[in-house]
């Protein structure tokens, strides 16, 4: 079967679209005929590799997918061949403290499909049945794939961990990214009073406005820290969503009002940085980190996708055979929302 793989870690020159054997399934798994897969910045981190990431090579890339069940394992009773399913990318189990509480994202052997094991940039993939969610007949594979990872992450961060309340103000650092476009919509749905978005271009900011952003700040045209200070009458915001890290964290902390929360799930511009701790205790701030989401978060947010109250932003759909071109687009960063692959 056709798949987007790499045989060694590195840059995009290590990625190839090639033929690999169709996977065999375990008793608790199903074989998914992938109808749509979506890209995430994570794909590039996995390609680069890090100490402790020991992948079976070649590695099939991609953490997001949806499709039709082509085969069911001998232990699978609640799904059948032909079912249309979305896949929760978080792997977990019921055998440890967090897993038993549905917190797969905190369980001992937490893993992500496409990160630690083979993923969705292929014609078929093997998936544990416990990760499946049946899709309503009228829902689209491209939307289910585009939504899964970023929406469960943003929901868990903003709602479950961040405790966003109606009437609060939210600043989102970055306009067009997958997590950010999800975060804007979730903040709107949760009743945020004002959503400030800092973006790299007017075009991306216009799209953010269409998703629900109220105040738009182009970071190449103005000092966004000062702009937030001014726009909030020198008070700051209740919540900042900052998945950029080194380049923005210090400004994000300053943009919070007293008692504010900085929510983070990533660090696209670098993981290590300094900040002035006096801001933390002097302003009673909290930094709340999280990764992915629980299975309950996944089901909640995907049902909001299926009923149309949230909608993944899809930038471009590529055929699987052009997976490498899509990965180059992702790397360049000139993307509003998600890049999707279809067979
Ligand atoms: N822990 C988890 O569970 C989890 C899950 C998903 C993602 N992540 C991480 O979260 C991060 C975002 O993921 P993604 O898939 O949404 O990535 P993405 O689609 O590539 O988006 C990156 C975002 O960062 C913004 N950005 C980059 N550099 C910036 C800077 N210097 N100043 C301000 N904004 C900047 C971009 O802003 P513009 O759009 O305005 O250009 C864009 O919105 C990644 O680091 C990813 O690994 C973590």
UniProtKB/TrEMBL annotation:
What EC number(s) is this enzyme filed under? 1.1.1.1
Q: Does the keyword Ion transport apply?
A: no
Show the GO MF annotations: alcohol dehydrogenase (NAD+) activity
Regions annotated as coiled coil:
none
- Report the residue ranges that make up the Enoyl reductase (ER) domain in this protein: 10-341
UniProt cross-references to InterPro entries, sorted A to Z: ADH-like_C, ADH-like_N, ER, GroES-like_sf, NAD(P)-bd_dom_sf, Zinc-ADH_QOR/CCCR
Enzyme group, top EC level? oxidoreductase
**Which keywords belong to this entry?**
NADP, Oxidoreductase
Pfam families assigned to the protein according to its UniProt record, in alphabetical order: ADH_N, ADH_zinc_N
**SUPFAM superfamilies, sorted:** GroES-like, NAD(P)-binding Rossmann-fold domains
Q: Does the keyword Transport apply?
A: no
Protein name listed in UniProt: Alcohol dehydrogenase
Q: Which organism is this protein's natural source?
A: hydrothermal vent metagenome
- Taxonomic classification, please? unclassified sequences, metagenomes, ecological metagenomes
């Amino acid at each position: 079967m056709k798949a987007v793989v790499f045989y060694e870690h590195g840059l995009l020159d290590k990625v190839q679209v090639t033929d690999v054997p169709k996977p065999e399934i375990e008793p608790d798994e199903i074989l998914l005929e992938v109808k749509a897969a979506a890209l995430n910045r994570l794909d590039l981190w996995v390609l680069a590799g890090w100490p402790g990431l020991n992948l079976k090579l070649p590695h099939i890339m991609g953490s997001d997918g949806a499709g039709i069940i082509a085969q069911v394992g001998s232990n699978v009773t609640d799904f059948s061949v032909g079912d249309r399913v979305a896949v929760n990318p978080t792997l977990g189990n019921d055998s440890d403290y967090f897993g038993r509480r549905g917190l797969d994202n905190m369980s001992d052997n937490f893993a992500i499909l496409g990160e630690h094991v083979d993923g969705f940039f292929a014609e078929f993939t093997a998936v544990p049945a416990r990760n499946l969610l049946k899709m309503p007949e009228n829902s689209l594979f491209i939307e289910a794939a585009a939504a899964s990872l970023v929406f469960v992450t943003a929901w868990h961060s903003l709602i479950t961990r961040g405790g966003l309340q109606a009437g609060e103000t939210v600043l989102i650092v970055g306009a067009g990214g997958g997590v950010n476009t999800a975060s804007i919509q979730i903040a709107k749905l949760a009743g945020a009073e004002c959503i400030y978005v800092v973006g790299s271009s007017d075009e991306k900011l216009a799209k953010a406005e269409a998703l629900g952003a109220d105040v738009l700040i182009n970071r190449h045209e103005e000092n966004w820290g000062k702009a937030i200070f001014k726009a909030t009458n020198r008070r700051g915001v209740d919540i900042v969503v900052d998945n950029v890290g080194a380049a923005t964290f210090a400004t994000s902390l300053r943009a919070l009002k007293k008692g504010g929360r900085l929510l983070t799930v990533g660090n696209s511009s670098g993981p290590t940085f300094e900040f002035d701790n006096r801001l933390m205790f002097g302003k009673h701030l909290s930094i709340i980190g999280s990764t992915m989401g629980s299975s309950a978060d996944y089901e909640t947010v995907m049902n909001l996708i299926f009923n149309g109250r949230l909608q993944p932003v899809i930038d471009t759909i590529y055929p699987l055979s052009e997976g490498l071109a899509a990965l180059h687009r992702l790397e360049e960063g000139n993307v509003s929302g998600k890049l999707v692959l279809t067979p």
